[in-house]
Each structure stands twice: as structure tokens, then as C-alpha cells.
Design a protein that fits this description.
By secondary structure, this protein is of the alpha/beta class. The chain has helices at residues 18-32, 49-54, 70-84, 94-107, 119-127, 132-139, 152-162, 175-180, 210-222, 238-245, 253-256, 267-273, 288-295, 308-311, 330-346, 348-365, 368-385, and strands at residues 7-11, 37-41, 58-61, 88-92, 111-115, 146-149, 167-168, 196-201, 227-232, 258-262, 276-279, 300-303, 318-321. α13 (288-295) crosses α16 (348-365). The two termini are 15 Å apart.
């Protein structure tokens, strides 16, 4: 059911992140299926706004600078909905979901919610109690007309917590752009083929586990292995970054074999230059960066958390290790990650075969077109169900 009225996406911000990049990936294929898009973001970070506009989406900031400004965002969202008359509102991430639910009665349009992660479960593991955010989510659940999760793991969590039956739509990526990308980023200090170039992409924070990645690389370098890890992403937790870089032990970056590149907008080129993608997260919904590495034909070493096992088949399209929770066993996980890296370094032909298999899977199952088909179907179902 294509519509001339836009789908209104609402998200916390447009900084570089998995959920935010997914929106960029879906604009063009959804427009091709008859669903134009307007994007509203709560907070001012808007790194991806130019890409969204270039792809044909309208982008609007709702005026909140912090959570204290969310009442202003609620008012502006209601005005925006009145002006654009969306066929459906689609919320992503927690703050945006609460704002859209606050507007639900005034918007008179179906509301779809996508859950991108297992943050409530992680809160319980690290804090030992139910998150206040989860309680608020539960209290306002009746205002949501449809629920999508990005993985079966997140779907199972939603069923257990909220008693809902979500639709699973795996994230989609631009496979062709990643498969055809060229390197030349200059991020690695030594680009000789003898050096194994490893990359970890994501916000630098405890849940993403870059401290584990740094420990694993140092274990291998202590054996005399020639590898270098580059961390790509915003430094949301300086302590995790210091640990990952080895600075907590007084090492210099070069000695530790880990370099920090900060946020980047050239991920396809970075992956084209890397040999191995490393994802050592303690929690995930369905990591877009792992999908991007698969599309680039790079073997992945990852912790088996959330939906990662739905992407990577151990020994065929990558290598999986068990995660390190509760805290205190991270060093054991680092040894397992080091062993997986050692396996790929010792058998480049096997590593290459894994990368090629991963790329074929990404092309078949996780393209932006496949993802857009499923979202278009869900949009049409909800719009029809709410037609007068």
C-alpha cells in the first residue's frame, strides 16, 4: 500500500550509530517502494542528516538539547505531525519511543516501535535490578500499534518482558557499496601485508567491549605476533578507551598495538583495508558493523551475544567466542578472542573463505532491499488496519 503521505521516523539523534545508519540505508529502497520518509530527531547531533537529505528524506530537529527539553520536543512533534500528516509514525530507541507515545492521542496515526538492542537485559546484569526505563516502557505499551525487533534474540526478550509478539526484521545494509569499496584510509601505521590489520567499529563504551579487544591484541603481540588494532567510534567512555589503548598499564599506543581513530564516515574504505573485523561486545541487538564487515568480505571474530549468532555461523562465516559476563572474567574472554584471531592469522586461506561466505550471506539475506521489503509490508499492514 504505497502512500503519498510520508512515513515519519522519530529517533533520538542522527549521530553515527547502528540504528541511525539503518535509516540512511533504507531511505532510497523505501522511496522506490512508494514510502517517502520524513526524519525527526530529538537531540542536535546530526552527523547523518546530510546523507539522509541526499537520499531524499526531509530532516527536522525537534529542539531538545537534553532530556530536560523533551516536553518541547513533544509539542514540536505534534505540530510536525499536523503539518505533514504522516501515514504512520515509526519510533527508534528509547527517548524517541517515549516522545511518540506521549503524542499518540493527538496524532491519529498508527505507531510502530523498533527495538534495536537488549539494553534492559544489560541493565539487569550490571545493576542487579529492573531499569526504570523498562517500567516506563511497560506502563505506556498500550499506545504502540506494532513492534519490530532487529533480531530473534531481541524478540525473545520482548516476549518475556512485555508479552508482545514482535515481527523480526533484520537490519539491512548497502551490500554493493561495501563489496566494491577501496581502501587507502591510512589508519594503520604499517600497511605491509605482513601486518594483520584488525578493526573494531562502534561507540567506545563498556557494553561494546573494546577493553577486551585491546587485551586480546596485547596477548598476541606479547607472543611476537604482527598485528595492529584500530578502534573506530566516538569515545563515550574514556576509561574503556584508556584500557583498550593500554594506557592504564603505561604503554604507548605503538607498543600496545592499538590505535584510536575516533568517529569516521568512511567505514566501507576502512573495511576494505582491514583483514579482520573484531566485535567483542558484552551485549548487542544486531550489530550493523558486523553486517558491514560481512558485506565487505571480511572474516569476523565476535562474542556470541544477542543476535550475533543469527549472522555468523561459527567456523563457516566467522568465529564466535562466549561473552564475558558477569564482570571479572573479561581476561578469560580476551584469551578466547586471541585464540580466534590466532586461528585466522595462521590460516589466511580459511580466513578468506570465511569472508567470502559471509559476503554471500549478506548479499542474500541482509541487503537494504530485503529489509525495505519487510518494512514496506509492515507499514502497509498497519496503515490498512487503521484505515477508516
Amino acid at each position: 500500500m504505497p502512500t503519498t503521505s510520508p512515513i515519519l521516523w522519530v529517533i533520538d539523534s542522527l549521530g553515527v550509530g547502528g540504528a541511525e545508519q539503518l535509516l540512511v540505508n533504507l531511505v532510497i529502497p523505501l522511496r522506490a517502494r512508494g514510502f517517502p520518509v520524513t526524519v525527526a530527531h530529538l537531540y542536535p547531533t546530526a552527523d547523518l542528516a546530510p546523507a539522509l537529505r541526499e537520499h531524499g528524506a526531509d530532516v527536522v530537529w525537534l529542539g531538545a538539547k537534553t532530556r530536560a527539553g523533551l516536553p518541547r520536543a513533544v509539542v514540536r512533534l505534534m505540530r510536525l505531525a499536523r503539518d505533514v500528516q504522516p501515514a504512520l509514525v515509526h519510533a527508534h530507541l528509547f527517548d524517541s519511543s517515549m516522545v511518540t507515545r506521549a503524542c499518540r492521542g493527538a496524532m491519529h496515526t498508527p505507531l510502530l516501535q523498533t527495538y534495536h538492542n537488549l539494553s534492559y537485559a544489560y541493565d539487569e546484569q550490571t545493576r542487579g535490578h529492573t531499569s526504570p526505563r523498562e517500567r516506563l516502557d511497560r506502563m505506556t505499551r498500550s499506545r504502540v500499534d506494532g513492534v519490530v525487533t532487529v533480531s530473534e534474540a531481541v524478540a525473545a526478550d520482548c516476549r518475556a518482558r512485555f508479552g508482545v509478539e514482535p515481527r523480526v526484521i533484520h537490519n539491512g545494509i548497502d551490500v554493493r557499496a561495501l563489496a566494491d569499496a577501496q581502501g587507502g584510509t591510512g589508519l594503520w601505521s604499517d600497511t605491509a601485508e605482513a601486518t594483520t590489520r584488525v578493526v573494531s567499529i562502534g561507540r567506545i563504551e563498556r557494553r561494546k567491549g573494546q577493553d577486551i579487544a585491546g587485551d586480546a591484541v596485547r596477548l598476541l603481540r606479547a607472543e611476537g605476533r604482527d598485528l595492529e588494532l584500530v578502534l573506530v567510534g566516538g569515545a563515550h567512555d574514556p576509561e574503556v578507551l584508556r584500557h583498550a589503548l593500554g594506557q592504564a598499564k603505561g604503554e604507548r599506543d605503538r607498543e600496545a598495538g592499538v590505535r584510536f581513530a575516533g568517529p569516521r564516515d568512511d567505514v566501507p574504505a576502512i573495511l576494505a583495508e582491514a583483514h579482520i573485523m573484531l566485535n567483542t561486545s558484552r551485549t548487542e541487538g544486531l550489530p550493523l558493523t558486523v553486517l558491514e564487515a560481512m558485506a565487505a568480505g571480511r572474516p569476523v571474530v565476535a562474542t556470541r551475544v544477542g543476535g550475533v549468532g543469527e549472522l555468523i555461523t561459527h567456523g563457516e562465516s566467522g568465529l564466535l567466542v562466549e561473552p564475558g559476563e558477569p564482570p571479572g572474567v573479561a581476561q578469560g574472554v580476551a584469551h578466547a578472542v586471541a585464540e580466534a584471531l590466532r586461528t585466522l592469522m595462521d590460516d589466511p586461506e580459511r580466513a578468506n573463505a570465511m569472508g567470502q561466505r559471509a559476503q554471500a550471506i549478506a548479499r542474500e539475506r541482509f541487503s537494504a532491499e530485503v529489509c525495505a521489503d519487510q518494512y514496506a509490508d509492515e507499514y502497509a499492514r498497519l496503515i490498512e488496519a487503521h484505515a477508516p
